[in-house]
Amino acid sequence: MTADSTRSEKKPLPKADQACPLSRFKCVCAYDGTDFCGWQSQPNGMSIQDFIEKRLAQIFKRKIRIHGSGRTDSGVHADAQVFHFDACWKHSADTLLSALKCGYPDSLQILSVRRVPQTFHARYSAKGKRYSYKIREGHSAPKSTRYEWSIGRRKLDVKAMNSAAKLMLGTHDFTAFSANRGGGAKENPVKTLFELEAKRSGSLVKITTRGSGYMYKMVRMIVGALVEIGLGKLSEGDIEDMLSAKARCSGKFQAAPAKGLTLEKVYYSIRH
Question: N or C: at which end does the chain have fewer Cβ atoms within 10 angstroms?
């Protein structure tokens, strides 16, 4: 992914007016996470946040910090990631959207921009999120290999996976299904899952989950555990024991690869 691969501007930008009132903008973006090093800004400048902030600096002629609904790891995709920022802009939100749509790799696109109250926060105002994960029995087609976990000749018992998934619905301490982010970061391990279901379509198994929030690698860890269930390597009793233990279960199962995971939607109250 190089500068040559980015989309160029098609028309001059309106000038940002520093005398106008400060506005908060809620934005939605989509991306193929394969070639990015995750959402959060990185020293190499190859995160999604870095690309968006670089474009905002070009528009506003100063550094603009954006705040996302959460971090997605390197290789994870998004259909509707939400972020916000504050800036002085006297023109319409649609004009800002037109400006923001330019200057990115084809794997990143800004979908919408609108003014919101200062009380809105992309992360702290979120009421929940929905993710999906795709698993391919056999081998993915070349055009799909960036978005699916291929498990070769192994076959999954989807019925057993869904039976185990029901044990995770509701409010639990999900420490067993999280990873250490490092740097002394601490997250509240108590989350509520409203939906967790696996569906088969031929050789493709799609797992969808909707919850109040997710810890670091939590969705990928849940998928990893459900795959072990589907392969007959873990039992429902194992899931119950791990939830009860409220401790990380090193060695029992691995997090599913990042490439199969997509953030589909972030939920907010009606007024946001």
Answer: N
* All residues at 6 or more sequence positions from 75 whose CB lies less than 8 Å from its CB, including other chains: 33, 34, 257, 258, 259
How far, in Å, CA of 162 to CA of 226, rounded?
8
Q: Is 35 a catalytic residue?
A: no
**Cβ(83)–Cβ(71) below 8 Å:** no
Q: What is the average pLDDT score of the chain?
A: 91
How many C-alpha atoms does 185 have within 13 Å on its Cβ side? 10
| CATH assignment of 3-116, among 3.10.290.10, 3.40.50.300, 3.30.70.580, 3.90.550.10 | 3.30.70.580
Candidates 73, 79, 94, 157; catalytic one: 73
Task: Check: CB of residue 16 under 8 Å from CB of residue 89.
Answer: yes
- Beta bridge partners, 193, equal 170, 211
Given a cut of 50, whether residue 5 has pLDDT beyond it is no
Report pLDDT for 182.
Answer: 65
Distance CA(95)–CA(93), nearest Å, equals 5
pLDDT band for 2, please (50, 70, 90 cuts). very low
Kindly write down the DSSP assignment for every residue of 99-133, as one continuous string: HHTSSSBTTEEEEEEEEE-TT--TTTT--EEEEEE
pLDDT value of residue 8: 46
